[in-house]
Design brief:
eight-stranded mixed beta sheet, 2 domains, D-Amino Acid Oxidase, Chain A, domain 2, six-stranded mixed beta sheet, 8 helices, alpha/beta, 328 residues
């Protein structure tokens, strides 16, 4: 069997390759890592609830069934840790928000994910109406995952730093190039990419061990370091951080955190969002596409990789809401 070529080793390409490894499907990855930083700087939060609106992501329970076991298996296989159990503590902005949380948490669909309401005991955090605590949520360290999995592939001589042009593609190619796929002939209006920016701050006074969420999230990564993100912008679609993005993040951070901090790093990346907010997978011209996982790719990826490979190897239909044919 001729090996497939996965083009792009961001989050989509990595997860698809992992599932192909699980199934023994021959393949290799061709990647230009300098072209896009989106997956590498992603927060990696795995949470099926849209906290601002208290609604579940479409098919959340189905995606969650495939999730922990998939990543835990690969942590063991490549002998590293990248999936971390982490409660998200959402700061309420009013008593009404707290009441809505309590009401939703009694709904059976939300019970696995919405936990108790807690008081704020940290004087450096501004949360007068308390916090809602999630459960069964995770943080995936995407940078560690990508680096360690690349090393795994390189040891097997199945990773190549290089470029594939669309006119060189064939029936064994699978495009996983994120927002850059807009440049390869697919109608551009399918994508609605956004630039997201994050900060890495050092804050000795911030003692929270869980993720804080309000206008921004604050994610502890160890040694008094925290990721703060993220912004959404539809202009300047590049991986270059902006002063405007930094000011926006710091403004939101100061609404939550009263203490001192210093900015250690500032990152940006472009999310490969799709017009209808669902991924695009399936047959495209003479090759294939597995793309557009968006800001919840860590959650969506494992199940969608299984759906795509069932289509690729057994000709099982892809659900219409994910099939790229809905646009072409």
């Amino acid at each position: 069997m001729k090996p497939y070529r996965i083009i792009g080793q961001g989050l989509a390409g990595t997860i698809l390759s992992m599932e192909m490894e699980n199934r023994g499907i021959p393949h290799r990855i061709i990647d230009e890592p300098q072209l896009s930083a989106s997956s590498r700087v992603a927060a990696g939060l795995v949470n099926p609830v849209v906290l601002k609106r208290l609604r579940l992501v479409y098919e959340a329970n189905l995606f969650y069934q495939a999730l922990p076991g998939f990543y835990r298996k690969w942590e063991q296989k490549i002998d590293t840790s990248f999936l971390h159990s982490a409660s998200i503590q959402h700061i309420f902005q009013s008593q009404g928000e707290q009441n809505a949380w309590l009401e939703k948490s009694e709904n059976p669909a939300f019970q696995p994910f919405l936990g108790e309401v807690i008081r704020n005991n940290d004087p450096s955090i501004q949360a007068p109406y308390g916090l809602g605590q999630t459960q069964n949520t995770y943080w995936l360290d995407t940078s560690t995952l990508l680096d360690e999995y690349r090393s795994y592939l390189m040891a097997k001589d199945r990773y190549e730093n290089g470029k594939v042009h669309t006119d060189q593609a064939n029936e064994h190619d699978i495009w996983c190039t994120g927002h850059l796929f807009r440049q390869t002939g697919l109608p551009e209006n399918i994508f609605t990419p956004t630039r997201g920016e994050l900060l890495l701050i050092h804050a000795e006074e911030l003692k929270f061990q869980n993720i804080i969420h309000a206008g921004v999230f604050i994610l502890p990564v160890g040694n008094d370091l925290f990721k703060v993100g993220s912004t959404y912008a539809w202009d300047n679609l590049s991986d270059t951080p902006t002063d405007k993005g930094r000011k926006s993040l710091e403004s939101e951070l100061k609404k939550i955190f009263r203490g001192n901090y210093s900015v250690v790093e500032h990152w940006a990346g472009v999310r490969p969002n799709i017009r209808d907010r669902k991924p695009i997978i399936g047959k495209w011209q003479q090759s294939y596409i597995f793309n557009g996982l968006g800001s919840r790719g860590t959650m969506l990826g494992p199940r969608l990789a299984g759906i795509f490979l069932d289509f690729l190897t057994e000709q099982k239909p892809i659900p219409a809401e994910y099939d790229i044919s809905r646009f072409i």
